[in-house]
What we know:
Helix content is 49%, strand content 13%. The chain is an alpha/beta fold. It has one domain. The strands form 2 sheets. Strands 1-9-8-2-5-3-4 form a 7-stranded mixed beta sheet, with helices on both faces. A two-stranded antiparallel ribbon has the order 6-7. A hairpin with a 5-residue loop joins strand 8 and strand 9. The chain is globular, with a radius of gyration of 19 Å.
Amino acid sequence: MIRVRPPAAQWPFDLMRWALEETLRGALSPEEPEILRFLAGIGWRFEQRLTPGRALLLRDEARRCFGANVRTATAIVREAQDLALQARMERLVLPRMRGEELDAVARVEGAPGVPGAPGLVLYPHGGNVDLLLAALARRSPGLVVFSARGLPPATLGGFGAVRPTRINSRLARRRAEDDARLPIRWEPDAAALAGWLARGHVVAAAFDDRAWPTYVRVPFLGREALLSPEPYALARAVGVPLHFATIRRERDKSSRVVIGPPVVPELAAWLVDHATPFLRAYPGHYASWLAECRIRAGLDDHPLFTDYAADARWLRWPKYAPP
């Protein structure tokens, strides 16, 4: 059975995380991205020592979704933790990055439509999503992102919901302040997206997001998943092109953003032709999101995979288990 620390044993680590973030926020410079890459290269070792339960979740999800053996799953976990640490540090300096500094960190290929034309861009929760959105906003000024980040910080999920402590609430408020400094309009209402598209904006959304109103059961990564058909119906209804966007880390630990050409707006075709091939090619980029979804399974009425409910007993705390 996989166990994670109960809240009473976790608060010193939350305090350490908050103190470290505040220290790095003032020390890191957006003009020296190589420092971020160096720290991330050694940081996964600390991640495994500080959060051993999460490492086990990452390894288990890697084996379930990608059929990895023990050695490959271990490599996926290391890449996931290394990438997640670099993403967290880049997030601290991202609101202070100028355009040319952002271009040096994330190389962008392709663009949704032509400048000034509306389009719907879907992406997976794989890799540094914040960097992906910032790079997309640089290509498409006025970018609208469908996300719960548009809600007040007190209502946001993540570990603030799993461990509702003062430290986590403070971290959520600080991150909301950082989000507000990005050149992005955060839109939490799915019903408002058609209006933004009609007014000529580019709208970006995660296809595996938990904020869509409706979901259907579909095969995904060898399991049964709950994913929403709404973004594809939205693209058809408004008559805008649908694009697949990804971000992946290169060998030099810089990032490469790829915005593909228009694709067929159908959920099944999307998964088979675009999402699944990318995620299987870069499993370490997606493992952190899989672990996050599993951690939140006891709080979520529509978890990513339906088999979470059957083995939710890995949660140590009964109050967080599903009914």
